[in-house]
Amino acid sequence: MSGHYEAVDGNEAAVRVAYALSEVIAIYPITPSSPMGELADAWAAAGRMNLWGSVPGVVEMQSEGGAAGALHGALTTGSLATTFTSSQGLLLMIPNMYKIAGELTPVVIHVAARSLATHALSIFGDHSDVMAARATGFALLASSSVQEAMDLALVAHASTLESRVPFLHFFDGFRTSHEIQKIEVLDDSDVRALVDEGSVGAHRARGLSPDHPAIRGTAQNPDVFFQAREAANPFYLACPDVVQAAMDRLGARTGRSYQLFDYVGSPEADRIVVMMCSGAGAVEEAVEELNRRGERVGLVKVRLYRPFSARHFLRALPTTARSIAVLDRTKEPGSAGEPLYLDVVAALAEGPDREAAVPGDTRRPRVIGGRYGLASKEFTPAMAAAVFAELLKDRPKNHFTVGIADDVTGTSLAWDRAFTTEPPDTVRAVFYGLGSDGTVGANKNTIKIIAEKTDNFAQGYFVYDSKKSGSMTVSHLRFGTHPIRSTYLIDRADFVACHQESFLETVDVLGLADEKAVFLLNTSAPPQDVWARLPREIQETILAKTIRVFAIDAYGVAQEAGLGGLINTVMQTCFFALSRVLPLEQALAAIKDAIRKTYGRKSEQMVEMNLRAVDATLERLREVPVPAAASSAALPRREPVPMQASDFVRRVLGEI
Amino acid sequence: MSGHYEAVDGNEAAVRVAYALSEVIAIYPITPSSPMGELADAWAAAGRMNLWGSVPGVVEMQSEGGAAGALHGALTTGSLATTFTSSQGLLLMIPNMYKIAGELTPVVIHVAARSLATHALSIFGDHSDVMAARATGFALLASSSVQEAMDLALVAHASTLESRVPFLHFFDGFRTSHEIQKIEVLDDSDVRALVDEGSVGAHRARGLSPDHPAIRGTAQNPDVFFQAREAANPFYLACPDVVQAAMDRLGARTGRSYQLFDYVGSPEADRIVVMMCSGAGAVEEAVEELNRRGERVGLVKVRLYRPFSARHFLRALPTTARSIAVLDRTKEPGSAGEPLYLDVVAALAEGPDREAAVPGDTRRPRVIGGRYGLASKEFTPAMAAAVFAELLKDRPKNHFTVGIADDVTGTSLAWDRAFTTEPPDTVRAVFYGLGSDGTVGANKNTIKIIAEKTDNFAQGYFVYDSKKSGSMTVSHLRFGTHPIRSTYLIDRADFVACHQESFLETVDVLGLADEKAVFLLNTSAPPQDVWARLPREIQETILAKTIRVFAIDAYGVAQEAGLGGLINTVMQTCFFALSRVLPLEQALAAIKDAIRKTYGRKSEQMVEMNLRAVDATLERLREVPVPAAASSAALPRREPVPMQASDFVRRVLGEI
Fold it and tell me: Phi/psi class of residue B420: alpha, beta or left (left: φ > 0; alpha: ψ in -120 to 50)?
């Protein structure tokens, strides 16, 4: 039990466990799972050892199909093996997954869940890939946060070895895979404590070997295939209890308790949401807020989705539940309903089982299903509140959507954008940068500083678009004294930084600013000229929200310090100077320490230049005087498309 | 409207329609769908034209993944294209299927449904492959017989063009794909009448072309992906009615009426089975028999499984239904229930919709689910009767199996092997042959003769094992005056032929013989010596069932006629001589006619030799005198494994 905290992202959280427990790691890169394979590859190249003191063999194949084949082969010899994938990559693994599961072979595949390409491809997150693999016979274990990505990775590895059911451990692509969180990391002693060496030995002993020849992978005819297929039942029936036992052992060591289905909310809730993965963070915040307001609502977080244990699900559900909304982060056109919805309906319909699980309970809550968050579409506490409001209705929409306005088939729920659950003691900062201008790197550094130097929790999420380098990045950072569960973008920032002045012309950079926020602008203009250069809408927002404005000539400072166009140190220093999440002295010491760590190995000169930039920044950072009214000289923000463009360009592309 | 009958198998029935409606046919062979690709390839090589007077381009790719890619590419240019596959082949098509469906591209993939490889591979039939593709957004249309494989192939092609939803048309591997049935075939005028040329033109007009450039296959970010995904809803909502309209047009032309969900049985049934594909034949026979005995039961045959129209399903279900069993021919270990089961439960749980579909009906029948027929495991009317019996119980088993004895987890239902529904006027004949000895070919020929020369319906099903050439084949032939729906093996044969005497030592060839059956043995022994050479168990069966025994020295006759080891003509002649399904004169004329057709192109000498063999056969066919008791000289049948073998070999392999 470590008691040791670090700021890592979901990919790193999962791969640390996977690496420690593997001898063969078959990889093929696909966004957003690639960092798992890259880290494993880098660690192996550096000679990092697994739990048994050997360096895993990391092998990159020609495709995910090949990676799955290599995995199957390695497992069949009795090796401990793993792989990482997403989206289409997982589709290519499906044929091998049926075989691996059919042969009851322990393995964990870690998946950063991502949309499948349909009308368009998307690199962003939803569960369509995982759901496409739900028939393979793999257990599916869902993590809803970075901490869980590490904890449940270990539960998955421990459980697969004991149950012989292979596991797919998944978490939301980008939202969890790329979110940086300060988490309590597991160390080797935790991993060792959870994994049963006897099961490891049993797996090795089942390996095909010339020393004890056996046959596997045969062909069977109608006479025996069906019987042999059913003979796997006991393994699947035992699996949920195996997983719960692993969760219990983890809980006993770490104090972090998990259930197959975790309930949070009012013990007498009349309305319940059932869902899995990162969206649960937003719903949990909504549940707390609504219960604070006197409602009675709750949330069932599904962790072990396959094998689906109706018994455990029904026990997790309060007997007071009257209506239930099941939220699926996938869409299966033409289906009778999305997958989790169908399972919940069936679990509730199987009356005798429910009565056995909860004696005397014969009521049947009404169940509706909805879709949310496809391709990382934002999902907020306000949307969760809209779902709970829908559940109050006599005839709620079924097969609804939330998070979009569906004006084609009218499936969508409206939500109240004013509904917010941001805790007042959380610091929320948003940074607009240019891909590759150092903004994201500086923010990751800031999180590490706060995570390591303070007792604060920290979260960082970085919105790129799929064009990657060269387009806009928006960094969303939260800091606070409690673990941060807000799995959605910031829309009420205390601090907004615009690292590129040109964004002012096209982007509503203060749209996310809260009342009385601080706005930091990187501009070459002297402070007294800044106001006049701001577009009229920005000026009006500053006045309306009583925003304080600060200016820094970051390119000037960087240039003078010899850093050329690298403004990351300058902007980071401004953030610490203005946000005061740390006392300034302490923050400056930490920044300088980070500079020495980052550049020390490369060149002493780089260290000196950056240290100079820190000091110069503090001298040149200035508050911009804000007059009482917007000035008539300010220009309106540019339209996204020219007014004379065609109807399609204006009404469709312009809106987008 | 043809009014023209032919004996074809399910593969040929489907590919005839697919060929007529395609310009590009991408193929890759996989059992049991290969004959579809092979026929298309052969027809194209022979210059056969499609409906529009061009010869389709048939292209064999490097794998099913390549075939799906070629298909997607051809469709994107506005071509009409199709492909055929099974099992793992379909898995490799899944990534392209998501794209094809996402882009709303009309196409039909014809699938001879086959088991996916899990603990072992199996070349036989179940729905695990089709179910693995159910999330892709393809419509799934199920045929349960050879006639339907042709009719619904056309419905699929017509509907995809009108609805823009791509279709997967499937039927049971082997049971339907390789079953020969006399069916009323569709001709070009039928095909032309069902397909809307306007929709064909619209598809062509959507093709990517340099003449009217458009973009497809883009990448989308979280801002718009979800909305665009939901924009496909109207197409899926409209699809069921489009399919029903195509079925109605087909019905008007042919008199064969289909519904999305076809109900058969008592209009006041209290117990209902819901299922799809060939097993429906066995259930329908059980339903008729049970209703004849005074029960009230029924069957819903699911034809359009995706998009799943709960509205149509609920309308098909009698309001008197009290308990429902949903039979799935697949197993998804760890699921909350098999796919069709979950859908039916959800359809019934969505109360308001049910009330809208059937006003005032607020009852909720109890639903249980079961698995049957994995990897072509036999599924008979007796098993269906066991399911109906289970539905009578207060606490019926849920997630049961039927067709096996599950002594591991106790899921299986017992069934009464004496329950039979074979119509008394059907002739049932079973033939034991050696792979490649001509038995199957002769039987196919026999069916063609009966189908073409008489008003009788005919069915042939051929049990090979996966070792193919060189092992035993068992041919199951039925003939009768009504269409034959018995989608299971014969277990009460009027006629049993053993084409290889050596089988007597190891196989209980008379196990399937009915009382008073005719037994034909190919043996070199003179008739008076035959009895003494029969193993004791065979003798006892002959006496117990009052079986008449006939002997022919087929190898001798063939040798003398100059045919070497080719005994097919000899054995076929014996069958017609003994079974009298046709008057002998007429049968002989037909056999001789078939000989001229088959061999005429090769050599006049072959024709002569075969004609000689026919005549010689009639001279040499003799009845074997049957004494009153088994003779003590007869040997027992050989044990499958030696008695001194190990416990595992005797108790497991021996049983198998």
Answer: beta
Which residues make beta-bridge pairs with B301? B262, B275
Selection from A138, A43, A24, A28 nearest residue A81 by Cα: A24
Distance CA A225, CA A227 (A): 6
d(CA B181, CA B462): 12
Nearest residue of A to residue B131, measured between CA atoms: A135
Strand (E) positions, A143-179?
Answer: 167-172
Contact at CB, B120 and A333, closer than 8 angstroms: no
The tens digit of pLDDT for each residue in A431-478 reads 999 877 888 888 998 998 888 888 899 999 999 866 655 688 999 999
Angle between helices A34-45 and A10-20 (to 10 degrees): 50
Say how far apart CA A283 and CA A276 lie, in whole Å: 10
pLDDT at B352: 47
The Cα A21–Cα A80 span in angstroms is 7
In Å, the largest CA–CA distance within chain A is 88
Residue B291 has pLDDT above 80, yes or no: yes
For residue B170 the two structure tokens come to 């499937």
Q: Are A40 and A56 in contact (CB under 8 A)?
A: yes
**Binary contact (A336, B348; C-beta < 8 A):** no
Pairing relationship of beta strands A323-328 and A366-372 according to DSSP bridges: parallel
Say yes or no for a CB contact (<8 Å) between A116 and B98. Answer: yes
Which strand (E) or helix (H) includes residue B614? helix B604-620
Strand partners, A446: none
Give the pLDDT confidence of A143-171 residue by residue, as tens digits: 999 999 999 999 999 999 999 999 999 99
Whether residues A134 and B333 touch (CB distance < 8 A) is answered with no
Residues of B in contact with A333 (CB under 8 A): 101, 137, 165, 232-233, 236, 307
The string over A187-215, giving b where at least 16 C-beta atoms fall within 10 Å of a residue's C-beta and e elsewhere, is: eeebbebbbeeebbeebeebeeeeeeeee
Q: For residue B185, give both structure tokens.
A: 């075939």
pLDDT at A653 over 90: no
B402 and B383 Cβ atoms separated by less than 8 Å: yes
**Chain B residues inside the 8 Å CB shell of A32:** none
The dihedrals phi and psi of A229, each to the nearest 5 degrees, come to -65, -40
User: C-alpha dihedral over A8, A11, A14, A20, to 10 degrees?
Assistant: -90
Q: How many CA atoms lie within 13 A of A378 on its CB side?
A: 16
Contact B127, B305 (CB under 8 A): no
One-letter amino acid for residue A191 of the chain: V
Residue B405 to residues A231, A627, B368, B474, Cα–Cα distance (Å): 11, 86, 19, 24
Q: Where are the beta strands (DSSP E) in A217-357?
A: 261-265, 271-275, 297-302, 304-306, 323-328
- Strand segments, DSSP code E, in A62-107 are 81-85
Among A170, A177, A173, CA closest to A146:
A177
Cα–Cα distance, B343 to B321 (Å, whole number): 17
Which residue type is seen at A194?
Answer: L
Q: Would you say the C-alpha torsion B535, B540, B541, B543 has a positive or negative sign?
A: positive
Nearest chain B residue to A105 by CA: give it.
Answer: B119
Confidence band, pLDDT 50/70/90 cuts, at residue B651: low
Best of A229, A350, A402, A651 to disrupt the B interface by mutation (most B CBs within 10 Å)? Answer: A229
ipTM above 0.85, yes or no: yes
CA distance B196 to A484: 58
Name the residue type at position A572. Answer: Q
Report the alpha-carbon distance of residue B100 to residue B436 in Å, rounded: 41
Cβ atoms within 10 Å of A113's Cβ, excluding its own: 32
